[in-house]
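A quick aside before the break. I want you to see a complete sequence-to-structure record at least once, exactly as it would be stored in a machine-readable document. Don't worry about memorizing anything.
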Amino acid sequence: MRRPSSFAFAVLAAIAAGLGALPVSGTISAQETAPAKKSASAPEAAAPGTATPAAVGPGGKVRKQTKPGEVTIEDQVRAAFRVEPVVHRLDGRKGQLIPFEFTITSQGDGTDVDIRPVALKQEENGVIMPDTDAPSPKALTFEGPASLSLKAEEPYVLKGTVRVPSTQSSFHSFGLLVTDKGRKTGEAPAGQPNQPQFGVDFVTRYLLRCDINVEGVRPADAHKLVIEGGTMLEVDGRPQAKLFVSNPTESPLEFEMKTRLVSVTGGIVGKEFNLVSPVRSSLAPPERYLARVLPGARVRLEEFIPFAVFSGDYQFEASLMVHGRRFLTAQFPVSASEKDYPAQAAAVAQIANGISASPAQVELSLQRGGERFVSVVIANQSTESYTVNASPLNRDRTPADWFIVRPQAFGLPSGATRKVLISMPATRDPDAPHQYGLLNFGLADEAGEARGSGTIDVGLLARTETNPELNVGNLAWDGAASPPAVVLPLKNKGAVHFPLNARMTLSDAEGHRVRFVAGYGRWLLPGDSTELRFRMKDAIPAGRYTLRIQIDTKEGLAPVEITTPVELTQ
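That is the input. The structure line, written in tokens, reads:
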């Protein structure tokens, strides 16, 4: 549900109604904050008279009744049977008859199950589901009855065969649906007919698949697929590439989607990378990068861009690959602005067009476990070659002598990366305070002309540990921003930098939560002020919510917390 304009009005009303007068201003020292309270949501707590879904299972019953109308139910969910494997990956040639076996085992009591071939359909996220309304496939058959009784813990081997279709498709998928007859739980306790009771019908269902890679076939319909909706968007503060693939043909297809960014000013940005179907995002390569699209389906592919993307206009180029061959290519115009990706900005600094440095913040430390040396990587994604001069500076941009960089000058050809080492001098006053400065990178072209410069933050922590101290202002709503945001002003009143990592949640009475993040580890230096911006890209249903903000402070110390009720109206 995407309605930023109506959502902006809703949150604006909430802010005006209550947040503006929120008494959260003032200085909060991290060591004085109260520990975070455990939220009263499922499964730890539930509203009176309700059952927590995570606590319900076969044999669900009244465990205790502490007050009239209040019922607590405790149990666990367990499938009536299990199947191994759930998916067979088979290889074969056109027309070949391939045998398969699945082992079905009842868990606990005996189970009655139904078995039948089933057609398949596909969700946008890549999940393959049974399509019980479509005709079942004729190419798959199995031995034995369609209904049978499984004995407790006694394996049953389901055998069958699948005929590889004689089509020009290099991939096929066939399904078997195994369903138990269901069990009703929650009988009334003996001799207690008026005792509250709870009953649920539980049905276990497995969708088994035979996925077939057809050998010796060049997919004839691969070029008929449609690549559409290519875009680059912000997710969790980072740039993510996304597109859709539609299959208007009668043939399924397994493929890879390789993508790259090309700057309109010239040159490929970063390396080529693969997009991933969400359903396969938890797998390891190379299986992670295999995507499937069934006939008539439209699937989404996405991936975080594995390199820094800075302000500019680009072509997002996508290529559909089957067995290493490129069958289809599409291009989409995309653009990025300086503030689009706040998490990236906290990790990577833009020195000039196509030149980046990471990390963007370097902490040297004399404290136990601290780093005395830190490497910084300078990357040249532009089409030009440069000479780089690195200069240590104080915060007022005067030369600094409390940290050292080596080498101070080096060449950086197009497409190359170089490392520089930042360290502290061999001798240092042991009583010196924490210090903060900048490492400036100046660029010159091959003719010696200056071509820009940029900086990263450098901090040196003294031996004496210092707890952070944060001044928190009043919550506000910025409806003019794109996207609109809840804004929290902050000021660092302490002597040490404050890495900003913050979370905001909106929770309703039923325990549903919407989560937002801000800060992304960006330093707030001593004496500096900033704003945490919890950006709201999607609409939220109208209603009453509890707004909660947590700001991490220091390991071993409680976070800064703000909690207030709000009401969202449309």
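Two observations worth writing down. The first helix runs from residue 4 to 17. The chain is about 5% helix and 50% strand. We'll return to this after the break.
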